[in-house]
């Protein structure tokens, strides 16, 4: 009997050459996220909505963001989700990002440090830079979560809703499809919540209010709080990918610190660039 639920057997490669070498959808998702951010920030510059010079968006700010996201996301995944315990038997694991392992919370920290460095050299306040970048981040989160779904990773909890999906890698290799329980496609839930919903909100705030000019740092604070809330909600449908902390999934636990950071940004006094 064929399985009742759709089986996620999508190819993680757009072009597969051999072994682990090829063009992956996951890598394309990062490229699309950076392109979307660059296009939006360039638009802000042309419309006079940011202190960032238009000519510096692609060759300055985007380069800093790329380093912040990639290094922060990788290091964050390694230390926040327990991979560091493998160091004695695999000391080079941290240096192999193509094998998977990126954490959004680590990426946020990496971006913060990158913006601090960029703002210090360009004499632009961290609050303003944070607002500008936060208004673009959900686009990258959307592409990344869709790529997670294509990869068949970070699957949801077992569920028998009509739209549940069978993820072959959720069970040991060789397990027949008939013996694999369907699960929530939580990656798509997160794509909708962290990506589309938050993108609509931050873009609405950016274009329909003067918050970026009047209260630098307020928008990034709102984004961090909103992200933490939708992430915690989405975690209710996602299978924990590491041990719990104080009874909470790690995604929920680490989001508590995002709420604290968001509140600090919202309450901080505006400073001149």
Would you give an account of this structure?
- There is one protein chain.
- With 273 residues, this protein is mainly alpha-helical.
- The protein has one domain.
- It is built from 9 helices and 4 strands, in the order βββαααααβαααα.
- The protein has helices at 25-46, 57-80, 104-122, 126-134, 137-151, 186-208, 211-214, 218-234, 250-267, and strands spanning 6-7, 13-18, 21-24, 165-166.
- It has a two-stranded parallel ribbon. A two-stranded antiparallel sheet has the order 2-3.
- α1 crosses α2 (57-80), α1 (25-46) runs antiparallel to α5 and α4 (126-134) packs across α8.
Helix and strand topology:
Elements (H helix, E strand, L loop, with lengths): L5 E2 L5 E6 L2 E4 H22 L10 H24 L23 H19 L3 H9 L2 H15 L13 E2 L19 H23 L2 H4 L3 H17 L15 H18 L6
Parallel strand pairs: 1-4
Antiparallel strand pairs: 2-3
Helix pairs in contact: 1-2, 1-5, 2-3, 4-8, 5-6, 6-8, 8-9
Any key phrases for this structure?
273 residues, mainly alpha, two-stranded parallel sheet, 9 helices, 4 strands, 5% strand
Short description:
The protein is mainly alpha-helical.
Strand residues, percent: 5-15%
**How many domains in all?**
1
Based on secondary structure, the structural category is mainly alpha
Mean pLDDT score, rounded? 92
Largest sheet: 2 strands, parallel
Low-confidence runs: none
Q: What is the CA-atom radius of gyration, in angstroms?
A: 20 Å
């Amino acid at each position: 009997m064929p399985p009742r639920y759709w089986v996620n057997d999508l190819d993680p490669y757009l072009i597969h050459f051999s072994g682990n070498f090829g063009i992956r959808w996951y890598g394309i998702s990062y490229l699309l996220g950076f392109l979307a951010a660059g296009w939006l920030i360039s638009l802000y510059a042309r419309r006079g909505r940011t202190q960032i010079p238009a000519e510096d968006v692609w060759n300055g700010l985007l380069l800093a963001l790329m380093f912040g996201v990639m290094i922060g996301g990788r290091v964050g995944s390694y230390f926040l989700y327990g991979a560091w315990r493998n160091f004695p038997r695999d000391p080079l694991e941290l240096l192999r990002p193509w094998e998977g392992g990126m954490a959004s919370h680590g990426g946020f920290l990496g971006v913060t440090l990158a913006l601090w460095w960029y703002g210090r050299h360009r004499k632009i306040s961290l609050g303003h830079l944070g607002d500008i970048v936060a208004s673009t981040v959900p686009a990258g989160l959307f592409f990344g979560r869709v790529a997670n779904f294509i990869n068949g990773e970070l699957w949801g909890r077992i569920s028998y809703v009509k739209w549940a999906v069978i993820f072959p890698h959720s069970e040991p290799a060789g397990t027949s499809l008939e013996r694999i329980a369907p699960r929530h496609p939580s990656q798509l839930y997160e794509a909708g919540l962290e990506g589309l919903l938050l993108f609509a909100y931050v873009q609405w705030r950016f274009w329909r209010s003067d918050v970026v000019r009047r209260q630098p740092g307020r928008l990034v604070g709102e984004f961090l709080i909103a992200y933490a809330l939708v992430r915690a909600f989405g975690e209710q449908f996602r299978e924990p990918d590491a041990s719990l902390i104080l009874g909470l999934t790690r995604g929920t636990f680490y989001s508590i610190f995002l709420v604290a950071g968001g509140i600090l940004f919202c309450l901080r006094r505006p400073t001149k660039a």
